[in-house]
Design goal:
Layout: E1 4-7, H1 17-32, E2 36-41, H2 51-64, E3 69-74, H3 79-91, E4 95-98, H4 102-115, E5 139-142, E6 149-154, E7 158-163, E8 171-173, H5 181-191, E9 196-200, H6 204-217, E10 223-227, E11 230-231, H7 247-252, H8 257-266, H9 279-285, E12 296-297, H10 300-313, H11 316-329, H12 336-352, H13 356-367, H14 376-381, H15 384-396, H16 405-419, H17 425-436, H18 444-451, H19 453-465
Parallel strand pairs: 1-2, 2-3, 9-10, 11-12
Antiparallel strand pairs: 4-5, 5-8, 6-7
Helix pairs in contact: 1-9, 3-5, 5-6, 8-10, 11-12, 11-13, 12-13, 15-16, 15-17, 15-19, 16-17, 16-18, 17-19
The structure holds glutamic acid.
Glutamic acid is lined by residues 8-10, 42, 185, 199, 203.
Amino acid sequence: MTVITRFPPSPTGFMHIGTARTGLFNWLFAKHHGGKMLFRIEDTDRARHSEEAVAAIVNGLHWLGLDWDGDIISQFGRADRHAEIAHELLKSGKAYYCYCSPEELEQMRETAKAEGRVTFYDRRWRDSTATPPEGVKPVIRIKSPLSGERIVHDKVQGDVKVDAEQLDDFIILRADGTPTYMLAVVVDDHDMGVTHVIRGDDHLNNTFRQNVLYEAMGWDIPVYAHLPLILGPDGAKLSKRHGATSVEEYRDMGYLPEAMRNYLLRLGWAHGDDEIINTPQAIEWFNLEGIGQSASRFDFDKLNHVNAHYMKLADNARLTDLVTDIYKLRNIEVTDTGRTRLLAQMDELKSRAKNLVQLADDAEFLVKDIPYDFDEKAAAQLNDDGKFIIKEIANGLDLIPAFTATELEKFCKDVAAMHRNGKLGQVMMPLRAALTGRGSSPSLVHAMEILGKDEVKARIEYALEK
Ligand code: GLU
């Protein structure tokens, strides 16, 4: 059997972290089994549907590095097929027309409420021989089993049971001929040959109803795995209140996709105590048994830790490209010289930075030209004392035997010994302020070597005039 999973997001305009995790699990499961992951867009809600909303999901998947098999399937585009199945069920006697008016339904709702029942529809048209009222367009309802225990065998939650009485004869085709979500999902999953449904446990209740449809059609029920929710650090459902909830926000905050994959994998799936699990390893290990039964809490510190790990491993040229994209957003052009400088200091930059945005901040002085701004800390360093020191440094630069980090360090130590009782910090701080415009930076002597003597001189000149 070829494993076929599916990724069926509703296009909401962004890709929620939970959706991304579901996508990742489906992708890993398919990859692990040499199967396929299909991509269906659940776009039947036409009011909310837009090309941009679909693009947001596609871009999110691309960014995460997840791919799918075949074309994107539009659920809306399959409405005729859904209707066809509804009529087939009608013909085989598994479904029926219901002509109830809104008023009748309202009354049933009230009675049900008074009697404390969960389902309200009293099935009055189920086996009715009454003549349909004139001019009323009927809906089609499925005949749900009337009694007995209904069981969903779930790979995460185990066997979950409800009494058949809890399931109503739900609508599968509306009066205007459009399918309901319940029908569309089942028909699509069946037609797509889906073998495994891995999705959020907010859909577990739907599963009981969906299985009624599978049984009515005589179709194989897929294997189910319902994933517990993602919670915020405080245990409440993850929401904006906790911080970023969409994939694009994490991208913009400078997280690497491979770090995000690793983090999302661990958010609900475990392989012993392993925290760092790269994607090839994840594909090899992923299984449904490793999915936890309880909700997982989003842990920003852990994500930062994982991201820092992948930053260190990332290729320098790739990181240079990625920060160049960030500079573009900041309207900073990266020239060839700027790129060379970035590459030259990347080993150090990437081991300091928790994320790409921080890396871009740290390295901005390498790509910016005079005039640049001084941040508050830097400006404070450029007082008379500070200026005295950087002037001393500028005056000595021509005497240094070679413009290398080692020689520059020796030289700065000499200046400190001569003017600041050997306190190197009191030399480096104003020098850093002058050369980078910032209160902190990666190794300054290394940066000086990379910038070169002329540039260092020019920057000190510039700072002295401030
Ligand atoms: N479109 C649904 C959602 O985004 C998924 C439905 C399903 O997985 O069956 O939550």
